[in-house]
Structure formats: structure tokens, C-alpha cells
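Chapter review: from sequence to fold.
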Amino acid sequence: MGKGAPKHKGADRRDDDDRAPRNEGLVRKAPIAPDIPDEITFDLLDKTARASLRTLSKDNAEDVGRHLVMAGRLIDIDPERAYQHAQVAVARGGRVDICREAAALTAYATGRYADALREFRTVRRLNGSSEHLPLMADCERGLGRPERAIALAQEPEAKKLSAEASVELQIVIAGARMDMGNAEAALMTLARISTKDSQARVRISEAKVAVLRALDRNTEADELEATLPAEGADEPTWADEVYLYDTEELPEPVEYVAPVESAGEDDASVTPASGDANGADTMTVVADDESAGTHKDTNVPEEPKNV
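The C-alpha cell string follows.
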């Protein structure tokens, strides 16, 4: 799975608590394994992830590894299928932290915030890492519990996060402040964030625009929004690969001339036809139709030649 914390979902959340009940049966139905293309091999998994799967049998490790590769490749383009692959990996390697991490990230990507939070907590217990603390806080927001998101940011582990993860966490906390109706506190949180990452600065500014509008400071919001890059401006488009040609420069197509065959024992006779507008001759083939007792005239066009 990808490194670092994906940006939080913001408004794209389900606020319902979809956590599985605690008295759920111990035996769960095995997930249906999605198909994996033949070109997806265990070797495509990074070296560290492959090492994590050594506790599994060789065949099972390779199978789980291929599902993890698919989960990583699909999470941004088809998160639901990525989630299905991650569920298979968990069913077959549930004691391996990277399997639970894949389940957490794909659950988060599909809006299953209760499931994601549960898996993130499991990952934390397995490897002792708090790198996903920003996403855990955002899951609490998604479940309608912004005060718990703020509480997570106040844990001692939050001070040990990387610079990138710290920025993510502060953006989530600003959102939690907004959820609680405290736009002024959200703006102060965003104003205190310092980063050299250009993409992070853009996201901070986008969050500030939303907060300023919530405070009815629309003029400031408009001015800040005007400094932001247009959405999708840096993304390549299909039009970059289109080439235009002037059709007036192309040669005129040449008519196909049917070959003249010997009319010895054949039932068809061939007679020449008048030339067409381009000066090319065509042949009119007259064939006997014994069933109808009539003749059919068929003009055979000339096949275009490669120029």
C-alpha cells in the first residue's frame, strides 16, 4: 500500500456508525476473491512487505501478496475492488500488519470509517506505529465524533509524527473544529500550520477558503481562492496526444478495377463500362440468375491503393 497519509475525505463521508456488533459470530463467511491478472506477481510487492509475509506459508504468502498489490493499484481508481482484495488478504493473513493496513486504508477510501478505525487500531497494536493517527482522527470525524478526533491529536504519539503527517493531522483538527461549529478556532488552527510542501499549502488554503466563507468573510475567501491553481490544471489530458492533419493534402482515393477473367465456361460475362469522373475505368459484371430468370448488374468499386 502507499506510504504516508492520504488526504482526509472532508465532506465525502458517511456519518452512520457501521461498526460490526461486538456479539458477531466467531465464524465469518470467507470473502469472494476477485480475479487477479496473470501479470500481477508476488515480486511486484516491495521488499519490506514481502518480508512481512514470511510468517505465512510460501503459497499463501504469494497469494496474499498478489491481492495486496491489487489493493494498492486500485485504491485510487476503484476503491471498492481494492477493498475486496484487501479483505481476502486479511482473511488469509490476518496476523500480518500490512494486511490489516491494507484493510484499513481501503475501508477508509470507501467510507467505511468504523471498519477503518478498527483496522487502524489493530495495525497500531501489531507494529506500534502511530503513522495513521491523522486518518484515525478523520475516521472519528466521519463517525460524527469530532471531539474524539481532537483528543487523538492531543496524544503523546501525535508529537512524534513526521512533518507530513503532522500537517495532515492539523488539517483534520481544523475540520473537527468546523464540525463543532467553531470556525474561528478552525481558522487559527490552519494559520498555525507551517510547511514547505506546495501541495500541502494548497490544501491548507482550500480549507481556509471554506472557513472564511463560514465566517461570512467572502471577500477574503474570494481573494485567497483566486490564488489557488485551477482544478486539474497540472493533470495531463488526452488532447495532448491528438495530432491534426489537413485532409486537403491527402491524395484522392483510386477506384478498384475488377480483373477481367476468361469467359469460357463461366456463367458470367464481363463488359467494359464507361470511365468515372476521376478517369478510372470500372467493369460491370453481368451474372445469370437462373432462379429469377433475370440479370443483375453490379458495379464493383476499385480498392483504394496505399499511397
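Two observations follow directly from the output. Residues 254-307 form one domain. The chain has a mean pLDDT of 78.
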